[in-house]
């Protein structure tokens, strides 16, 4: 029995969705057949069920790198090895708005947890095959998306040096959230497969505006569908021995 995610290993799939939001984990679970609450302990809400016959798990990790790292470590102890973050994010670039869908190609490391695993000069990037599966899934569903580099930190209200946001904007950074740096670095360190996609909930000038809530929720449903279809394709390739 793990210390925080308390359940039996046979209740956890190798294929895991890891949103921060517990409500989004439940929304993913609602798309699974015969889904059920596996455990709700120490800030982790875990559901399992099947999607077109494939056993999958959704774990609401909470916010930030420390909680993500604990979740991934314990889920991996129980057999998980493929993790897709289905998240929300803020944005940086002119023209971005609530409801935009972003598939991560990498993350600028502004958090601290991943530094305990690999040094800062090691890049935080997803597994290419998982990123490609997310892109293919979005295209098959005819859902518009952007692929790009984001930034992830673990201090939501921390002050930033003057020019910090402008530097990131000028470098082409398109998203900001709190978990992908840890996800990608732990994946690299342990040899797990990882990927991430997000629905934007803001603009470059507004964080979570009320007027964008409905559009964000629609996009949230789309990123869940993209992730489910991508994970299904990944599992099918695994059965066929394609990796």
Would you mind describing this structure in some detail?
This protein has helices at 22-29, 65-77, 128-140, 164-170, 180-190, 213-240, and strands at residues 15-17, 33-41, 44-51, 54-60, 82-89, 101-110, 146-153, 175-177, 193-200. It is of the alpha/beta class. The protein has a single domain (9-240), classed as Nucleoside phosphorylase domain (Rossmann fold). Strands 2-3-4-1-5-9-6-7-8 form a 9-stranded mixed sheet, with helices on both faces. A hairpin with a 2-residue loop joins strand 3 and strand 4. The radius of gyration is 17 Å and the shape is globular. It starts with 14 loop residues before the first strand and ends with a helix.
The best one-word shape is: globular
The helix-and-strand class reads: alpha/beta
How far do the termini sit from each other?
Answer: 29 Å
- CATH topology label: Rossmann fold
Rg on CA atoms, Å? 17 Å
């Amino acid at each position: 029995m793990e210390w925080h995610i308390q359940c039996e290993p046979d209740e956890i799939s190798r294929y895991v969705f890891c949103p921060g939001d517990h409500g989004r984990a439940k929304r993913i679970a609602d798309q699974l057949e015969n889904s059920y609450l596996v455990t709700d302990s120490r800030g982790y809400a875990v559901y399992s069920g099947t999607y077109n016959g494939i056993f999958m798990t959704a774990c609401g990790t909470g916010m930030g790198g420390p909680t993500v790292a604990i979740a991934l470590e314990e889920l991996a102890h129980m057999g998980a090895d493929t993790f897709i973050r289905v998240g929300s994010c803020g944005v940086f670039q002119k023209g971005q708005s609530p409801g935009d869908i972003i598939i991560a190609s990498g993350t600028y490391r502004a958090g601290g947890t991943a530094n305990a695993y690999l040094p800062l000069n090691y890049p935080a990037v997803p597994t290419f095959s998982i990123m490609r599966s997310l892109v293919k899934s979005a295209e098959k569903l005819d859902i518009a998306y952007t692929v790009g580099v984001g930034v992830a930190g673990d201090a939501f209200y921390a002050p930033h040096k003057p020019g910090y946001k402008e530097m990131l904007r000028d470098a082409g950074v398109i998203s900001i959230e709190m978990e992908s740096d840890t996800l990608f670095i732990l994946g690299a360190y342990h040899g797990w497969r990882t990927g991430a996609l997000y629905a934007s909930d803001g603009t470059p000038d507004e964080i979570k505006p009320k007027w964008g809530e409905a559009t964000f929720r629609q996009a949230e449903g789309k990123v869940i569908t993209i992730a489910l279809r991508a994970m299904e394709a990944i599992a099918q390739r695994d059965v066929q021995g394609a990796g």
